[in-house]
Design goal:
The protein is of the alpha+beta class. It folds into 4 domains: 1-35, no CATH class; 39-183, no CATH class; 222-285; 286-479, no CATH class. It contains 7 helices and 16 strands. The radius of gyration is 42 Å and the shape is elongated.
Length: 489
């Protein structure tokens, strides 16, 4: 009993373990517990302007694993870490805070109150009724004094897009949750989109812009020297025939010259009208080669199914996607007093006013061997296309307002839509179509390619059809679009 009384009077006597007295008067061993500091509550305010630079934007920079140097940023207002009066410490919040769920800086306290109050923040998201949502800040360490819990206030009605980091979900700003630019809803002017798409095709190095009007030309079939020689012979024959007729009244020479001239004129007219079909017949009759036995550098014809490469095309008017070749041509009919579509446009004929033809590299699966070859029609390669085009729309002064899509297509290319008779034709080679390709086989590191030949290939004379020889320059593409069956790939 005496020992118990002595222990109550002198608790630390004869003991090396510390003890302390509870609120009810009892003494217990051990040191007293230290009072825990309450977790401070930090409001969210807008960070200073960073110009949209991620490296200067603090927490957002950490999200993208971009480390910046410690210390205050250049041209940045100071952040107060105390709640006292006029004396404040500038600089960013200590890195010991870690990945906290707050943004912005701590507001300075109102002077004269001992640091217990602070200014009210106006940043924070709004709910669907326009009222400020209740949002608490995360914990923070580093010697900051406790403070009262506050809610963020309403945002200003209109905020310019300046790159400031503000509170609220990422999807509410100009970027989505993945960090990419957020798409703006609403329709886009189709004429602007058409013009942008045509410009992108024209300036893409992987796309070949084909400017030839037709694959066949009578001027290209016959050299200019022969044209001048034949013309000179006819002039001399006509002069001699007329002189003999006037001198001795013998019309035989003049009749012979007229007959020969009529035959040559008929032959030229026939080739102008049927020359393209003659070339297509030549391509169709050319035998298909087997890529397994084809030699390197051999000129072959391959027929198979088309597969798109890295850059697929899209037609400009009908918006047909996944194409390897596209052609959109606008023709105009010129009457007696109509405007000419081009400087070579003659009266009472159809003239080409606008043309968009593009081709890209693609793959072809050979029907003979089953091998797959890369056809190099892109990157400015020489290509001679024989692809059938279909009439999409006919426009005259009476029905020009019936097609708003056509009018937008004209505006996208800065073409007038006045009183003209116009016809739009479009042709394309879509993925899965059957195509015949004529070119040179090239094998390089087990990669099978078909490339343009170094010199043009002559078709020769087709005597049975009275077709003059013509030259096929570059790769020859032949596709019959009348067969609408497309093999899915």
């Amino acid at each position: 009993m005496i020992c118990f009384i002595l222990f109550q009077l002198f608790p630390n006597m004869g003991s090396r373990f510390p003890s302390h007295q509870l609120s009810n008067g009892l003494y217990v061993s051990g040191r007293p517990e230290q009072p825990k500091e309450k977790t401070p509550v930090i409001c969210s305010t807008a960070m200073p302007y960073t110009g949209g630079d991620i490296k200067k934007s603090g927490e957002l920079g950490k999200m993208f694993d971009i480390h910046r140097k410690s210390g205050p940023l250049g041209n940045q207002p100071s952040r107060n870490t105390s709640f006292g009066g006029a004396g404040s410490n500038s600089g960013p919040v200590s890195n010991a805070v870690g990945r906290s769920n707050y943004s912005g800086s701590i507001s300075s306290g109102v002077p004269g109150t001992g640091g217990s109050s602070r200014t009210k923040s106006n940043s924070g998201p709004l709910n669907k009724h326009g009222e400020p949502t209740k949002r608490s800040s995360g914990p923070q360490s580093g010697g900051v004094t406790p403070m009262a819990r506050q809610n963020s206030g309403p945002l200003p009605p209109v905020l310019p897009t300046t790159g400031l980091i503000t509170s609220g979900p990422i999807t509410s700003g100009p970027m989505n949750s993945s960090g990419a630019a957020r798409k703006v809803s609403g329709p886009l002017d189709s004429s602007v989109s058409m013009k942008m798409r045509a410009t992108s095709f024209a300036h893409n190095q992987a796309v070949s812009n084909l400017n030839g009007e037709d694959g066949y030309s009578i001027k290209g079939s016959i050299p200019n020297a022969i044209w001048w020689l034949v013309s000179l012979l006819f002039v001399v024959g006509f002069v001699a025939g007329i002189f003999i007729l006037a001198a001795i009244h013998n019309p035989v020479l003049l009749i012979v010259v007229v007959v020969i001239f009529a035959f040559v004129a008929a032959l030229v007219t026939w080739n102008i009208c049927w020359g393209t079909k003659g070339v297509i017949g030549f391509v169709s009759r050319y035998p298909d080669a087997d890529l397994r036995t084809a030699k390197d550098g051999e000129y072959v014809k391959v027929t198979g199914v088309v597969t798109c490469g890295n850059v697929p095309l899209e037609t400009s008017f009908q918006r047909v996607q996944r194409c390897v070749y596209t052609s959109t041509c606008l023709y105009e009919y010129r009457g007696w007093d109509s405007k000419a579509a081009n400087p070579q446009h003659r009266r009472f004929t159809w003239g080409l006013r606008s043309m968009e033809r593009h081709a890209v590299d693609f793959y072809i699966s050979d029907f003979q061997s089953g091998l797959r070859a890369l056809v190099k029609t892109g990157f400015g390669a020489r290509v001679t296309p024989y692809v059938d085009e279909s009439v999409v729309i006919d426009i005259n002064p009476d029905n020009k307002d019936m097609s708003p899509e056509f009018l937008r297509w004209l505006r996208g290319r800065n073409l007038s839509s006045d009183d003209r008779i116009m016809r739009l034709k479009e042709g394309y080679i879509k993925e899965g179509s059957t195509v015949s390709v004529m070119g040179v086989v090239q094998k390089n590191d087990n990669v099978l390619m078909i490339v343009p030949p170094a010199e043009p290939i002559s078709t020769g004379c087709q005597w049975a059809k009275c077709i003059l020889p013509t030259s096929l320059d570059g790769l020859v593409l032949r596709c019959d679009t009348s067969d609408i069956d497309v093999i899915p790939v």
